[in-house]
Amino acid sequence: MKYSNIGKFVHIKKLCNDQGHLQMLAIDQRPPIFSLIKEKKKRYIYKDVVDFKKNISLSLSKHSTAILMDPVYSVPNLIPSSRSKGLIVTLEDHDFIEKGKGRYSKNIKNWSVEKIKRMGGDAVKVLAWYRPDADEKSIEHQKKYIATIGKECQKYDIPFLLELLVYPFKNEIGYSKDYKEQLYKNHNHVIDSVKEFSKAKYKVDIFKLESPVDSSQLQNSKFTKATEDAFKELSKVTRNIPWVMLSSGMSKNSFFNCLKLAYKNGASGYLAGRTIWLDAFTDYPNYKKIITKLNKESLSYVKKLNELTKKNALSLEKYLTEKLIQKNAANFKTIYKGF
């Protein structure tokens, strides 16, 4: 079956600003938000999580080209107030399975690519834990899981945004199941993961990538040659698939420097959450103070990121026109069986 990619073109255009850059806000986080609320209130209820996310969206979505939401807490409650043009929706369940040296991703129960398309999503986002040295069964499961989603996204003509994260095994320093950057990560694990999933069979449209080096190496803008080389290598293994950086909850300064290196090597933007807004919640649940911080410190940081993106990120205009449209234009009627 042939595909036109017209739908993917339309959707990706909605994720971009007028210059073809991606300035995207993530509020789909679940475990990190659960943990913060429980630290202050011992337990969380549904409304607590909704209120947490809603205030981020109200303060920052108008400065973002697209917003990433989960279907459980965000989508049914935040769509009316979101000011972002584009909508990315999470597919994967945060409660992954871990066996031996391997993690197994799965979809949110009864949630699918088709449903994301039907409810108006502009992209399907999947976070997949992956290490090239994990147990063979885990590796094969993750490959099959991602390939299946890629085929579904092609079927429904909606962009597939893949987030890859390396992780520590149980016997390694810093082991945790939390959604945070792995300590002392092997940069080759990051590189080799992207190299695998940039293969055409996975049908990834946009990568959401972590830094190939520890964020501690990005705190100072005077980068080592090894750090610069790691970002060059990361760019190379994407095989020209558009990519953006994720923040992994790193410090604001480290993420800003991370973007400098990413843009120097062809990244087209960012998709970030905790680094932007988490420190605004130090006084949780005092929303008067939280809202003030979101509208000052967090907003100021977003504007700083957007200015950097405007000046340095790679525009997607040429990619969208040449790859997704022009080569399919002549076959448009054939693909859609005439009209």
Structural summary, described in words:
With about 350 residues, the chain is of the alpha/beta class. It has one domain (about 5-335): Aldolase class I (TIM Barrel, Alpha-Beta Barrel), CATH 3.20.20. About 45% of the residues lie in helices and about 10% in strands. It contains 13 helices and 10 strands. The protein has an 8-stranded parallel beta sheet. The chain has a two-stranded antiparallel sheet with strand order 4-5. Helix 6 (about 135-155) links the parallel strand 6 and strand 7. Helix 1 (about 5-15) packs antiparallel against helix 12 and helix 3 packs across helix 11. It is globular.
Task: Please give the structural blueprint.
Elements: H1 6-15, E1 22-26, H2 31-41, H3 46-60, E2 66-69, H4 75-78, E3 86-90, E4 97-98, E5 103-104, H5 113-118, E6 123-129, H6 136-155, E7 160-165, H7 187-197, E8 206-209, H8 225-237, E9 243-245, H9 252-264, E10 269-272, H10 274-277, H11 287-312, H12 317-329, H13 332-335
Parallel strand pairs: 1-2, 1-10, 2-3, 3-6, 6-7, 7-8, 8-9
Antiparallel strand pairs: 4-5
Helix pairs in contact: 1-12, 3-11, 7-8, 9-11
Descriptors for this entry?
single chain; alpha/beta; 339 residues; globular; TIM Barrel; 10 strands; 12% strand; 44% helix; 13 helices
